[in-house]
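Supplementary Methods S3. Complex input for the glutamine-bound model.
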Amino acid sequence: MARYVFITGGVVSSLGKGLASAALGALLQARGYSVRLRKLDPYLNVDPGTMSPFEHGEVFVTDDGAETDLDLGHYERFTGVAARRTDSVSSGRIYSNVLEKERRGDYLGKTIQVIPHVTNEIKDFLAVGEDEVDFMLCEIGGTVGDIEGLPFFEAIRQFSQDRPRGQCIFMHLTLLPYVTASGELKTKPTQHSVKELRSIGIAPDVLVCRSEHPIPEKEREKISLFCNVRKDAVIAAPDLRSIYEAPLAYHREGLDQAVLDAFAISPAPRPDLSRWEDVMDRLENAEGLIRIAVVGKYTQLEDAYKSIAEALTHGGMANRVRVKAEWIDAEIFEREDPSPWLEGFQAILVPGGFGERGTEGKIKAAQFARERGIPYLGICLGMQMAVIEAARNLAGLEDAGSEEFDHEAGKKRFTPVVYHLKEWVQGNHKVARKIGDDKGGTMRLGAYTAQLAEGSLVSRVYGGQTIEERHRHRYEVDIQYRDQLESCGLVFSGMSPDGRLPEIVEHRDHPWFIGVQFHPELKSKPFAPHPLFADFIRAARDNSRLV
Ligand code: GLN
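Predicted complex, serialized as structure tokens:
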């Protein structure tokens, strides 16, 4: 039966709870344990799939097709454990399950209440798969005291009571603000946050204190005394140069030891940190700088393309170069010539996106990369735009476009080279959709297999011919344009196993131009960079030699 670590936060949001959880997962693995990480989000959306990236950052998709919080991406990048649908839940999902059961009559006429019905639903979620791993790390979104979060805090309190003594611990993240006038780190907000936590029956075992400065011994003693946490379980979390420093930094500060002590695991197995030492070595001993232009839509919010930013960094690590991704709003190219903007970059990436806004600019970026022989990676919408570019400018289909934009505009303007997919095969069953279906959870989602063409660039990059990658889209490139496009040099080099859905395209006469219908960035890890990103950065580096 798994041991549980519940991770909560206080004082302010965005303290890096997800990162601390992920780093703890990595450290427990380094000591030989198996781990799973879970996220419980208090918002009322059933999942983040329908939220704008501006609201909540990127939507992270799992192999089994769940649209989840971007923290699950951190978890995967740090532990290498593929996240599952059962690793993420929101209040919306919990309430919707409870209400569904109520309508079905499962509660036998009882009055439905937060305690016990909602809290039981949360506890059932926590218990899924508890026999599969040594440690289950569960992060509660938001901060202690938020109205929406209360049922989750109550549920974890109950859960720890239901289990044998010593099976659950609580780790709380807080902030120690630095007051410049007095030159001091202030512990009062942390004290208040712990007080709030204790008022709902949770006494933290480990306190992780974010601060810009080291915690002086005197302050550590004070926190320990006033918050009733052992002194060696008051862990300093200083600002880091890179998120990938977190496992080593937290280990230095004694986080994993404090957690094992709280479970009374003694002697603790010794950690093997070589994976993270190698990651840091690659990051810190990089030679040269590669500049990548990311031409997208959600460019004001860094978190909107979180996994892409990380995968580019990993690609750099694979080649021991530093990668600087610069985000350019695609709409600019609808008004201005892209050349002065894009010259000087070693490669161009067009990421995924939804809706028509900015797409003409993305098409121009694809054209620029194709004509100038600059490495291009188009992801999902970025692939669709590359196909439309080739259809318009090489195959002479001047009004080529995507049905997505016609649907949005409510009128037909384009030849649908990219069309709305209504029926497809997943594993060994058929999936069907129609226009006007609910927006939530109805795309082609999760892992699908693709077959790569022999002799293609992608089969060389992957080093094989069968791959499995994660999808999240409603529209597809139409296979009926294949011959026409291939005769112009745009090769369909990856296909679904039934040969109906184009998964990858590449330009035959271009050094490195690849469009993929899936999201390779979701599977990249610092210790295992995704082959597409690794080779994209290699091509960018070779391109910079030519400049
Ligand atoms: N909007 C496109 C579709 O639904 C692309 C989606 C994406 O880029 N993730 O097919």
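The pocket of glutamine is lined by residues 352-354, 380-381, 404, 472-475 (CB under 6 Å). DSSP finds 20 helices and 25 strands in the chain.
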